[in-house]
Automatic annotation (TrEMBL):
A GO MF label: transferase activity
Residue ranges of every copy of the Aminoglycoside phosphotransferase domain listed in the record: 25-246
Phylogenetic placement of the source organism: Bacteria, Bacillati, Actinomycetota, Actinomycetes, Propionibacteriales
Pfam families noted in UniProt: APH
Organism per entry: Nocardioides exalbidus
Alphabetical list of InterPro entries matching this protein: AGP_Transferase, Aminoglycoside_PTrfase, Kinase-like_dom_sf
UniProt protein name: Phosphotransferase enzyme family protein
Length: 283
């Protein structure tokens, strides 16, 4: 299949019943090309095109899961996009494609306490969703092949302790509806109100604290430990069960690159913050 942008935009216009007047790239999009579309009738949508490997190879399952998650969230208190059309096999678009509604709001690089509290409340709201059919069981991103002490660490023994912890059995947990990639990067805001939770391709069933841990690791890497620790404190007041550090460690280790690949972050400061956070978790 080829990545034919024109064909994808024609499909999006036909799916909505109004041709695309303009298409602008959205920031982020580690897995996909994300386009903000304005249609001739004035409506706005977002088009996901699974153009980036290795996600492109699995694009049919990922986009179908996002569609199913958005259906499951319809009518809930979670402000998720509405699925409009899906071309999981790329028959019309060349790659797996998902057309969805566009939500209001902007990303935030400043996360004061009121916004951290809104994040914690939104995550608890997500975890309270009970879909008619459970989504797939969560997958760890801390694969055993990643259990290599990174060359850039100042705390090699802490990474070894983390690997030993993950080598043991996973704790019992209450199966919970998970976003699975919940972080400040996937939230839209109007002032201090979350007006959109996006990127549902990894939706899963699993331990609630794995979602919270992922949000915390992302906060650490972007801003340092203080907002991450505060977010976890706020979420603990709303969590369905007590925290088990196992899940926080699992998420932090998941940020290590697979063997032979460069670190996920090129900024030494980001690596140092991840390093110190892992050390804090296992100390």
């Amino acid at each position: 299949m080829t990545d034919d942008r024109t064909a994808a935009l024609d499909w999006a216009g036909a799916s909505l019943g109004s041709a695309v007047a303009s298409a602008d790239p959205l920031e982020g999009g580690m897995t996909s090309t994300m386009l903000a579309l304005t249609h001739e009738d004035g409506r706005e949508t977002v088009l996901r095109l699974m153009t980036h490997e290795p996600w492109r190879t699995h694009g049919a399952a990922l986009t179908a899961r996002e569609r199913d998650a958005q259906h499951a969230l319809a009518g809930s208190a979670v402000p998720a996009p509405r699925s409009i059309a899906l071309d999981a096999g790329g028959a019309a678009t060349g790659v797996a494609a998902h057309l969805m509604s566009r939500l209001p709001g902007l990303g935030r690089e400043s996360l004061r306490d009121s916004r951290l509290e809104a994040m914690a409340e939104m995550l608890a709201t997500i975890h309270a969703v009970a879909p008619d059919e459970p989504f797939r069981a969560y997958e760890t991103w801390a694969w055993e092949a990643k259990w290599v002490v990174p060359a850039w660490t100042r705390h090699p023994d802490s990474w070894r302790r983390a690997f030993d912890l993950l080598a043991g059995p996973a704790p019992d947990h209450e199966p919970t509806f998970l976003h699975r990639d919940f972080s400040h990067r996937n939230l839209l805001w109007t002032d201090d109100t979350i007006t959109g939770v996006v990127d549902w391709v990894e939706t899963s069933t699993g331990p609630a604290w794995l979602d919270a841990g992922h949000a915390a690791t992302n906060l650490v890497v972007a801003f340092g430990p203080d907002p991450a620790t505060r977010f976890l404190e706020l979420y603990a007041d709303r969590a369905p069960e007590p925290v088990d550090p196992y899940w926080l460690v699992m998420d932090a280790v998941g940020f290590l690159p697979p063997p032979g690949r460069a670190p996920m972050f090129g900024d030494p400061g980001q690596l140092a913050r991840l390093d110190d956070w892992l050390h804090q978790l296992v100390s």
